[in-house]
Automatic annotation (TrEMBL):
The chain crosses the membrane at residues 7-25, 31-51. It holds the Pfam family DUF1328. This is UPF0391 membrane protein SSA02_15480. The keyword Translocase does not apply. Belongs to the UPF0391 family. NCBIfam families: PRK13682.1-1, PRK13682.1-4. GO terms for cellular component: plasma membrane. Keywords: Cell membrane, Membrane, Transmembrane, Transmembrane helix. The keyword Cell membrane applies. Coiled coil: none annotated. It comes from Swaminathania salitolerans.
Amino acid sequence: MDLLRWTIVFLILALLAGLLGFGGISADFASIGKILFFVFLVLFVLSFIFGRGRKS
């Protein structure tokens, strides 16, 4: 869940920087947020797939 939290933080920072007129920094924050989201998505799917084989 930490990756998802960091993704939200970077996207909020991108929106805030864009609102204040810092276009370059806003694009960088958005790119970092997008990368973190896709890493989170891949790890979530992998843990879902590999976690299904175990029964408690």
